[in-house]
Design a protein that fits this description.
The complex is a heterodimer of chains A (114) and B (113).
Chain A (H helix, E strand, L loop, with lengths): L3 E4 L2 E5 L4 E7 L5 E7 L6 E6 L5 E4 L2 E5 L6 E5 L8 E8 L9 E3 L3 E6 L1
Parallel strand pairs in A: 2-11
Antiparallel strand pairs in A: 1-3, 3-8, 4-5, 4-9, 6-7, 7-8, 9-10, 9-11
Chain B lengths: L3 E4 L2 E4 L5 E7 L5 E7 L5 E8 L2 E5 L6 E7 L2 E6 L8 E8 L8 E2 L3 E5 L1
Parallel strand pairs in B: 2-11
Antiparallel strand pairs in B: 1-3, 3-8, 4-5, 4-9, 5-6, 7-8, 9-10, 9-11
Classes of the chains: A mainly beta (114), B mainly beta (113).
């Protein structure tokens, strides 16, 4: 059973366009993270959100955490070819029971063409 | 200065063989993990070790045996490899009680033929 639903699965856009990736869950998470993975590499952490309603900006990337801490979105403004990659959301319970175990969404493959 | 490094990057082997993957982290984290990424890119946790002690075992077959000689190292030994074991295996580390942000190795692509 997949606890985190990511949408869309695949997104192909032209350079300069905007895009949004969604990550939804029925579970509450203490910490929700976004990673980007490129071919042949491991996932690389982009951002962590922990507070309901939190918004974080990383250059052209904007991350939101829902008020109920169950869902999140990633918005990229004026996408560039370098933004191409597999975007993964992951939720964690920061407790001694779960020990930081990450539950991942299925990922969104983003392709930005020049 | 690679934070989490795992070897080998590629592993091709025949069914029935035994193989090991090694992982080391220099981040000073207490907790290390093994994740498996399937052909659809879905990442699922297999094991977690905290300070050399097994904490999480996500119903992985007994053929998979992790071992942590110290908190900076976590190895994965796989016995009697099967075709279905083909996947990319990632080692990761984190401080789980501080936001649980994970740092991943480059992955080991295991192909069983």
């Amino acid at each position: 059973t997949q606890l985190l639903e990511q949408s869309p699965q695949f997104l192909s856009i032209q350079e300069g366009e905007n895009l949004t990736v969604y990550c939804n869950s029925s579970s509450v998470f203490s910490s929700l993270q976004w990673y980007r993975q490129e071919p042949g590499e491991g996932p690389v952490l982009l951002v962590t959100v922990v507070t309901g309603g939190e918004v974080k900006k990383l250059k052209r990337l904007t991350f939101q955490f829902g008020d109920a801490r169950k869902d999140s979105s990633l918005h990229i403004t004026a996408a560039q070819p370098g933004d191409t990659g597999l975007y993964l959301c992951a939720g964690a319970q920061v407790t001694t029971d779960s020990w930081g175990k990450l539950q991942f969404g299925a990922g969104t493959q983003v392709v930005v063409t020049p | 200065d690679t934070a989490v490094s795992q070897t080998p990057k590629y592993l091709v082997t025949q069914m029935g063989n035994d193989k090991s993957i090694k992982c080391e982290q220099n981040l000073g984290h207490d907790t290390m993990y093994w994740y498996k990424q399937d052909s659809k890119k879905f990442l699922k946790i297999m094991f977690s070790y905290n300070n050399k002690e097994l904490i999480i075992n996500e119903t992985v077959p007994n053929r998979f045996s992790p071992k942590s000689p110290d908190k900076a190292h976590l190895n994965l030994h796989i016995n009697s490899l099967e075709l279905g074991d083909s996947a990319v295996y990632f080692c990761a580390s984190s401080q789980p009680l501080r936001r649980a942000e994970a740092f991943f190795g480059q992955g080991t692509r295991l192909t069983v033929v």
